[in-house]
């Protein structure tokens, strides 16, 4: 019986080794995941690339407890605020493009969003939503890379104008942005995912 147990344990060990190694050494590496996700999304109909800059801080008026007056408080941009700001932007852009059809029928623009960079000032470790910000990105200011789908009733120029207008209406939207037509979807995705899948803003990802 002991001999049978040893043979069974040896076979189980070989089986575990064969199934474990490909996943741990290859399939689960960050670069492999990024490439596979980029390949999956490359079939989407995105046709516009928008690189949008963010204000790294902003003064807000906040009520003073126990008083009717307000004070000014400087709020520094965090991952969470950048995500909320992009959500605000997409709501404005969807309404600007589709009007009431956005709320009534759920018409919306496809967007593959990425957040790059790192909080530069007032940083608190617990405020970072991304666990694996690579070294080079920690020196960059937080900014967005978006791949968007142009609504069929708008030209590229009209859509670009709406992107700029809506971005500047957001709380942290800065007036410097670069918008261009996509020539190579897969290439854009690989570039945007160079920091790993942790940079993908899944809260705002939308493939309509």
What do you see in this structure?
The chain is of the alpha+beta class and 208 residues long. It is 41% helix and 20% strand. The chain has six helices and six strands. The protein has a four-stranded antiparallel sheet with strand order 4-5-1-6, with helices on both faces. A two-stranded antiparallel ribbon has the order 2-3. Helix 3 crosses helix 5. The longest helix has 26 residues.
Give the helices and strands, then pairings.
Blueprint: H1 2-27, H2 30-41, E1 48-54, E2 57-63, E3 70-76, H3 79-98, H4 100-105, E4 111-116, E5 143-148, H5 156-169, E6 173-181, H6 185-192
Antiparallel strand pairs: 1-5, 1-6, 2-3, 4-5
Helix pairs in contact: 3-5
Summarize the structure.
This protein has 208 residues and is an alpha+beta fold.
**Outline:** extended
Strand content: 15-25%
Considering DSSP H and I runs of 4 or more, what fraction of the residues is helical? 40-55%
DSSP E strands, number: 6
The strand order across the widest sheet is 4-5-1-6
> Which consecutive residue ranges, at least 5 long each, have pLDDT under 50?
21-25
Question: Quick check: average pLDDT?
Answer: 83
Q: What attributes characterize this protein structure?
A:
two-stranded antiparallel ribbon; 208 residues; single chain; alpha+beta
């Amino acid at each position: 019986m002991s001999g049978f147990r040893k043979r069974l344990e040896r076979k189980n060990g070989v089986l575990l080794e064969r199934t474990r190694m490909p996943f741990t050494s290859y399939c689960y590496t960050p670069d492999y995941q990024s490439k596979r996700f980029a390949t999956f999304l490359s079939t989407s109909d995105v046709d516009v690339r928008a690189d949008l800059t963010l204000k790294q801080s902003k003064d807000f008026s906040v009520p003073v407890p126990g008083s009717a007056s307000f004070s000014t408080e400087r709020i520094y941009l965090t991952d969470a605020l950048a995500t909320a700001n992009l959500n605000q932007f997409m709501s404005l852009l969807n309404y600007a493009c589709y009007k009431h059809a956005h709320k009534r029928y759920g018409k919306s623009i496809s967007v593959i969003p990425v957040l790059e960079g790192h909080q530069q000032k007032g940083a608190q470790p617990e405020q970072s939503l991304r666990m694996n910000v690579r070294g080079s990105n920690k020196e960059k200011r937080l900014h967005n890379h978006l791949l968007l789908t142009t609504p069929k009733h708008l030209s590229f120029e009209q859509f670009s104008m709406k992107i700029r207008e809506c971005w500047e209406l957001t709380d942290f939207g800065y007036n410097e942005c670069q918008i261009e037509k996509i020539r190579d979807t897969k290439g854009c995705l690989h570039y945007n995912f160079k920091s790993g899948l942790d940079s993908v803003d899944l809260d705002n990802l939308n493939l309509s």
